[in-house]
């Protein structure tokens, strides 16, 4: 997401390094780079022109602070203007009204409307504690109803078994009556995908819109289509009247033109972004946070929110209790891996940490690291309950059995157990440090009680070094764990 734009911006800012102040002469090259980066990201030309002019005015104006490094000041100005471009403040759904609140999902074929309807139901249940009914109203693609019902069953959300032989407006009325009967707070209505030039289909959508009392009307726009997504949103807004936009497939879009243009061109606020294929991969849209991600300033608030959702307090307390006893089990390790998985991919997590965007580009593909995690999980799944609680039980014959059950070699099982042993030492050592023992083997600080320092060769195996032929290196030339 925004990888190309972030890299281009980083290159453009290099022109200000080592300068004592921002002047029209030294800012020209930077602005040229910014303009090129935005155009290559498929941002609307008028948007680019006005944005660059605003940044230039701010950079050369009285608001520039003395004593602040020009590059840092320029990045701050860029952040503020990017946030304004995308809407300044987050605009959520209007849920402070009597039920049943209708949310109408519209858009083109293949944009991801049905999937978004399921994601939104999960989001509203988890975030807003709302009781939702899903209403399939796509009578052009019967499979859409089946897909939505499948999502509903998987999520544990109620759905309306609509009669697709009826007109969309009649389906919606019947669905809302059912929602009212079931005392639902929100009804999410999935409509048929439309070509914006199809007047008959658009008129059906207008009829549905008129039949609803103050609905939320969200267009799902494919972020990968860039300016076409913006044009589609503009037509739908003129015909139907939108209250918000949703950008799907943001995880696949490295440019970001739609996100940076749609609010400016249509006046419609972006309310959600879809950042993955899983049902949980939906985020409320925050312009300021996204601007920070683009400029490699991180997004700590979103990371904290994700962590609060992902971390199981009981599991965390159980692991802490084990560590206090000098114990760290494979089950504890599994729970840590599951927490990381709930947070998202390694790349998405690292991008939320300030300054890590550039480092991530140097590190390259993190796919091999994630594959290693999957291999470890297969090995762990081949262990017995007792072996996961006490790794020291795993002797030679057990290792052969685990390898056979996991479809891996005995050598790979040995490597995992060795690395887990090193991690156990480190975790127990950290707990000792927190209890006042100090870091191990650091001059001036006492050794951690019960902590045995791993030999240097083992440390190299744990953190990398001696990579195999063809294996990709990380940022520091080490192999992946």
TrEMBL record:
Biased composition regions of type Basic residues, renumbered to the chain: 470-481
GO molecular function: 7S RNA binding; GTP binding; GTPase activity
SMART domains from the UniProt entry: AAA, SRP54, SRP54_N
Keywords for this protein: Cytoplasm, GTP-binding, Hydrolase, Nucleotide-binding, Ribonucleoprotein, RNA-binding, Signal recognition particle
Assigned EC number: 3.6.5.4
Pfam family, any one: SRP54
InterPro entries with a match to the protein in the record: AAA+_ATPase, P-loop_NTPase, Signal_recog_part_SRP54_M_sf, Signal_recog_particl_SRP54_hlx, Signal_recog_particle_SRP54_M, SRP, SRP54, SRP54_GTPase_dom
Cellular compartments per GO CC: signal recognition particle
Domain SRP54-type proteins GTP-binding: 269-282
One biological process term in Gene Ontology: SRP-dependent cotranslational protein targeting to membrane
Primary enzyme class: hydrolase
Positions contributing to GTP binding: 107-114, 190-194, 248-251
Localization per record: Cytoplasm
Residue segments, region Disordered: 461-481
Catalytic activity reported: GTP + H2O = GDP + phosphate + H(+)
CDD domains referenced in this protein's UniProt entry, alphabetically: SRP_G
Family: Belongs to the GTP-binding SRP family. SRP54 subfamily.
Domains (record comment): Composed of three domains: the N-terminal N domain, which is responsible for interactions with the ribosome, the central G domain, which binds GTP, and the C-terminal M domain, which binds the RNA and the signal sequence of the RNC.
Oligomeric form and interacting partners: Part of the signal recognition particle protein translocation system, which is composed of SRP and FtsY.
Protein's job: Involved in targeting and insertion of nascent membrane proteins into the cytoplasmic membrane. Binds to the hydrophobic signal sequence of the ribosome-nascent chain (RNC) as it emerges from the ribosomes. The SRP-RNC complex is then targeted to the cytoplasmic membrane where it interacts with the SRP receptor FtsY.
Protein name: Signal recognition particle protein
């Amino acid at each position: 997401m925004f990888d190309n734009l972030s890299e281009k911006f980083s290159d453009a800012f290099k022109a200000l390094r080592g300068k004592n102040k921002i002047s029209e002469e030294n800012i020209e090259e930077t602005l040229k780079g910014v303009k090129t980066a935005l155009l290559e990201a498929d941002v609307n030309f008028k948007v680019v022109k006005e944005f660059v002019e605003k940044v230039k005015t701010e950079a050369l104006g009285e608001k520039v602070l003395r004593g602040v490094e020009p590059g840092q000041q320029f990045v701050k100005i860029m952040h503020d203007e990017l946030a304004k471009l995308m809407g300044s403040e987050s605009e959520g759904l209007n849920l402070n009204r009597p039920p049943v609140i209708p949310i109408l999902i519209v858009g083109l074929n293949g944009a991801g409307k049905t999937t978004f309807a399921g994601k939104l139901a999960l989001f509203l249940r988890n975030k807003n504690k709302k009781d939702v009914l899903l209403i399939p109203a796509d009578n052009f693609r019967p499979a859409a109803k089946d897909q939505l019902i499948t999502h509903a069953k998987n999520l544990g959300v109620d759905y309306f078994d609509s009669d697709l032989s009826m007109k969309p407006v009649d389906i919606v009325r019947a669905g809302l009556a059912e929602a009212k009967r079931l005392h639902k707070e929100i009804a999410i209505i999935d409509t048929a995908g439309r070509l914006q030039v199809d007047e008959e289909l658009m008129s059906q959508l207008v009829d549905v819109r008129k039949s609803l009392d103050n609905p939320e009307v969200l267009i799902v726009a494919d972020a990968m289509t860039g300016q076409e997504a913006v044009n589609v949103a503009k037509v739908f807004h003129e015909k139907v009247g939108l209250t918000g936009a949703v950008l799907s497939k943001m995880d696949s879009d490295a440019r970001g033109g739609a996100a940076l243009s749609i609010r400016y061109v249509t006046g419609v606020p972006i309310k959600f972004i879809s950042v993955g294929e899983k049902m949980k991969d939906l985020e409320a849209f925050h312009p300021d946070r996204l601007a920070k991600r683009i400029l490699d300033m991180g997004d700590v608030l979103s990371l904290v929110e994700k962590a609060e959702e992902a971390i199981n307090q009981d599991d965390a307390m159980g692991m802490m209790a084990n560590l206090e006893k000098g114990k760290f089990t494979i089950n504890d390790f599994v729970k840590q891996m599951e927490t990381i998985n709930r947070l998202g991919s390694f790349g998405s997590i690292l991008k939320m940490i300030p300054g890590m965007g550039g480092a991530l580009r140097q590190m390259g593909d993190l796919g091999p690291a994630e594959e290693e995690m999957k291999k470890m999980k297969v090995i762990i799944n081949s262990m017995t309950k007792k072996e996961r609680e006490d790794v020291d039980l795993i002797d030679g014959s057990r290792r052969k059995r685990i390898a056979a059950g996991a479809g891996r070699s005995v050598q790979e099982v040995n490597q995992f157990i060795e690395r887990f042993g090193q991690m156990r030492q480190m975790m127990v050592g950290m707990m000792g440090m927190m209890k006042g023992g100090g870091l191990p083997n650091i001059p001036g600080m006492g050794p951690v009680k019960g902590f045995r320092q791993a030999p240097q060769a083992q440390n190299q195996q744990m953190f990398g070094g001696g990579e195999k032929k063809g294996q990709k290196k990380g940022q520091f030339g080490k192999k992946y764990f």
